[in-house]
Amino acid sequence: MTPHLPVAKTTSKIDLVRQNLRVVKQLHPTLSKIELMSLSDLTRALHLSVRQGEISYINGKWYVTHAGLLRVALRHRCCGIRTVLQEPQSDPIAGRWVFKATVYKSPGSKGFVGYGDADPSNVSPMVRGAELRIAETRAVNRALRKAYGIGLCSVEELGAFSSAPRPAAVSSPSNGHSSSNGAGNGQPRLRDQLCLLIRQYNLDANLVKAYAADFCGTQTLSGASRELVASFISHLAAAAKENRDALVCKLNSYAQPTVEARS
Q1: Which one, 60, 126, 203, 224, has least CB within 10 Å?
Q2: Interatomic CA distance for residues 70 and 239, integer angstroms
């Protein structure tokens, strides 16, 4: 849980209303008086800035952004935000992730809960491979909107406009290899997939890495091609689901002998 947040310094509501109207008229010169009045009301209620990207106008509607919701939380002295990956509902192979976020408005708060999900079908093609981060952001946004009574939908909850700090990198076709941490072809990061499987089935990470290297025919997992790593992850997921005990026995065969055993 994050520590207590400091209070943000803000401009007066009147000045912010004027600033927002001036900026939005430049960005959207055809807005009607009703839409401008709606922006004025939202500005007075939420004290968010169009120029700072805290509120946006998309396809005829106003939306709050993740930055705007964090600004509201900061202003109201939010005590903390906790996020938890919902492993049973997530499917790393399919690129589907589900998060639960809890916003604590005060130290004694029971918390306001929101859930967020993301998969290749409900995120923008521009950010395929970043579904995990988008799911967490959506969960936080929903929890914040519930905690502070914000009726506006957030931009990040819209599939067509979902964004992430950095789009996933696609491996170059010229070398045929890429890091196992990459996220090419619109798929989630292989590291995320492997870590989730390890946590989901309570496997020994070091033994899994040793098994993966042997499966890929390399000395270390980092030396394997992305295609081989992806194949191993699919194999591991199937083996764990079919018979975890047999998989654990297989992993134990990769354990290094202890000093006593060697002697």
Answers
A1: 60
A2: 42
User: 3-class SS at 238?
Assistant: helix
pLDDT band for position 188 (cuts 50, 70, 90): low
For every residue of 86-111, which 3-state class applies, written as one string?
CHHHCECCCCEEEEEEEEECCCCCCC
Neighbour-count burial for 162-188, b at 16+ CB within 10 Å, e otherwise? bbbeeebeebeeeeeebbbebbbebbb
Contact 97, 117 (CB under 8 A): yes
Listed in sequence order, the residues at least 6 apart from 110 whose beta carbon sits closer than 8 Å to its beta carbon are: none
pLDDT confidence tier of residue 227, bands split at 50, 70 and 90: confident
Quote the pTM value: 0.59
Integer Cα distance of 257 and 249 in angstroms: 15
Query: Cα-atom radius of gyration of the chain, to the nearest Å?
Result: 23
Determine the pLDDT at residue 84. 96
96 — phi, psi (to 5°)?
-105, 130
The 10 Å Cβ neighbour count of residue 54 is 21
Alpha helices in 131-172 (DSSP H): 131-147
- Residue 165 pLDDT > 70: no
